[in-house]
Every structure is written in C-alpha cells, then in structure tokens.
Write a structure and sequence with these properties.
alpha+beta, Murine Class I Major Histocompatibility Complex, H2-DB, Chain A, domain 1, eight-stranded antiparallel β-sheet
C-alpha cells in the first residue's frame, strides 16, 4: 500500500458502507522540509467511517473537534489528555524523521513519516480486525500483524526498529488489549455519539444538467438518516431502463447525498412527463422534469467558472507538493493511539 498526503484541506465527500461496516482510524503525519510553505511539521486526524472527527497540528497545538456532535466529548477531561499525547508524539516524530534520514543516507529534502492505525467493525456479525501500518516517504516501512502481534519490516532500514519494538513485550500486550477490545469500544462509542447528535433532516432535491444535451441528474442532499429511495417516473410509471443510480455518500457535515441520472434524448422528455421521486423517512418529494426546474451550467456560468478556477488552483498546488515528495521516491503516513476507557492513554507512540 502507498500512503498519499494532501496538505490542503478541501471539503471531501466520502463513500461509506451502509452494510453495517464501520471504520475508526487515526493518522499521524510528520513532515521534514516543508515548513517554509506554511505546512505543519506534524498533524493528526481521526476519522469515523471516513469522516474527520478531530484534527491536531503543530501550528495550532490544539486538538479541534471537526463535527458538531463532538463538542460534548471535547469538553471532557480526556480531550486534554488526548491533546497532551499528540503534543508529545509531535516531538517523537520530529526525532524519528531525523533517525530515518540518517538510516537512508539523506541530508536534505522533503520527507514524511506516518502511521495509519485503527479498526474495522461489522455491526451485523460483530467481527472486527485491526491494522497498524507505518510508512516513510510514501513507501511501506513497518506493519504489525495484529493477531500474531508481530512486526514485519518492508525495507532493510526498518530492521533495527522491528527488533526494538518486538522486544517490548509490555507494548505488545497493550496493543493486543487495544485491538481485542478498546478500538471497537471507541468506534461504537462515537457511532452512538454521532447518532445522538443528529436529528432527522429531509432532503433538498434538485434537477441538474451540464448542457441542454446532457443527461439530467436528480440530486438529493442534506438528509439524515442515510436511507433514501430515488425513482424516475415516465408518465406516472416507474422508469429504470435509462437510469444510473449513484452510491449514497456522506457530506462533510454528516448528512448524506444520493443521485439518479436519467439518460433520455431531449425530445423524449419534452414529449413525455418525467418526474423524480425521492422517498425519505421525513418526507416524499416529487419533482417534475421541466425547463424551469433544471439547474444547468448555462444559468450559473459565472459561479461555475469561479468554482472551476478555485478547484484548479488547489489541484495544481497539491500536484506540485506531491511531485516534490515523490521525487524522493517515498512518502509516509502515521496513525495514533486512542485513549483507553480507564482515562489513560493506551500507549504513547514509539521512537525508532
């Protein structure tokens, strides 16, 4: 696997598994050689089902809740402990990168050290599996076989670290306890916190079209919970033959979106009555396909152009930064610890 860094925060839309599969992941990233660009030397992100729930970096030196429903948890004493842990790991990472640069005979340049760590849990079967992966400059460095509690190096330079960590039986015992019990405990805890923090919200439905000759997209967004049914009707009858249904996606604010695209010629929907029906727990919305209902690029050219410009600039910046890192041939990502339910840190990230 390769870890990829995006140094610029852009609101992303994440695809999620609604088949009862959930993930809880923490990522630590240490960076050397990019401070002049205003990029933090260290950052930490925790995500639940692909949605960012907290963030820390070496510039702010604060752990920040990223979802409204995390505010209550952020007021607890454990939040201060989590902040202290990240501040300590920040120092560990700075030292670790220096050690790795020496091992790889590097004296300058852009380098990254990362850890990706967490668990995936199936609510239906109650089965779970953990993962703990390290990388340097985007290439595999060390991984932990969670069940075997055995570290494996991916490159020769990782051997001294594998030997050191493998000899730490207390550390391995803490990891076993975490992956056997505590990771899923916190995953379920935050799932309940997220659910309690949201009330039912109805969808906003729009008919979208890029050009008059383009297919028409029925787009529902901003609804909660996630279950929704979108149906296209032709003259009052279900019409599925020329329809492509998209996945349910999660928005940055925790609500959801889904689309169904109708592929029919312009003259066809001019002669017949097409309608999009969105069924949600809160309400059922039917929107008839007419010129007045469609939001197209022709009517929002100025706003659309601005959006493209902004996105273009962001993409160029990201590509330039990634090119700098890839030029060193590697790149790395890092995952953090999660506190135990005994109000103590499960483990502190390790030096090399």
């Amino acid at each position: 696997m390769k870890f990829i860094i995006f140094f610029i925060y852009v609101p992303f839309v994440y695809s999620v598994f609604f088949s009862e599969l959930h993930s809880f992941i923490t990522t630590y990233t240490g960076i050397h050689g990019m401070t002049a660009a205003g990029i933090p030397e260290f950052s930490a992100v925790t995500s639940l089902d692909g949605q960012q729930i907290d963030y820390y970096d070496s510039i702010t030196m604060e752990l920040i809740p990223k979802q409204p429903w995390m505010q209550e948890f952020a007021s607890k004493d454990m939040w201060k402990e989590d902040t202290d842990i990240r501040q300590y790991v920040q120092l560990v990472y700075k030292n670790n990168i220096d050690v790795l640069m020496e091992r790889f005979s590097q004296s300058h340049g852009v380098h990254t050290y990362q850890r990706r760590y967490g668990c995936v849990w199936d609510a239906k079967t109650e089965e779970s599996h953990g993962f703990d992966e390290y990388a340097y400059d985007g290439e595999d460095f060390i991984s932990l076989g969670v069940k075997e509690r055995r570290y494996t190096e991916s490159v020769l330079q990782a051997k001294p670290t594998v030997q050191k960590w493998s000899d730490n039986t207390a550390q391995l015992g803490s990891l076993k306890r975490y992956y056997d019990h505590e990771c899923v405990y916190w995953l379920i805890y935050f799932l309940k916190l997220r659910k309690a923090g949201f009330k039912r919200r109805g969808p906003e439905v729009s008919l979208l079209q890029k050009l008059p000759s383009s297919p028409v997209k029925c787009h529902a967004t901003g609804f909660y919970p996630s279950k929704v049914i979108i149906t296209w009707l032709k003259n009052g009858v279900n019409h599925n033959e020329d329809v492509v249904y998209g996945d349910t996606l999660i928005n940055e604010d925790g609500t959801f979106q889904k689309s169904a695209i109708l592929y029919v010629p312009l003259d066809d929907w001019k002669k017949n009555q097409y309608a999009c029906v969105v069924e949600h727990k809160t309400e059922t919305i039917q929107t008839i396909l007419t010129d007045d209902e469609i939001k197209s690029n022709n009517r929002t050219t100025k706003a659309y152009s601005k959006t493209l410009c902004v996105m273009g600039v962001l993409i160029v910046i990201v590509l330039v930064i990634c090119a700098l890192v890839q030029r060193k041939r590697k790149q790395r990502r890092k995952f953090n610890l999660v506190p135990s339910d005994s109000d103590e840190a499960l483990y502190i990230d390790k030096g090399l």
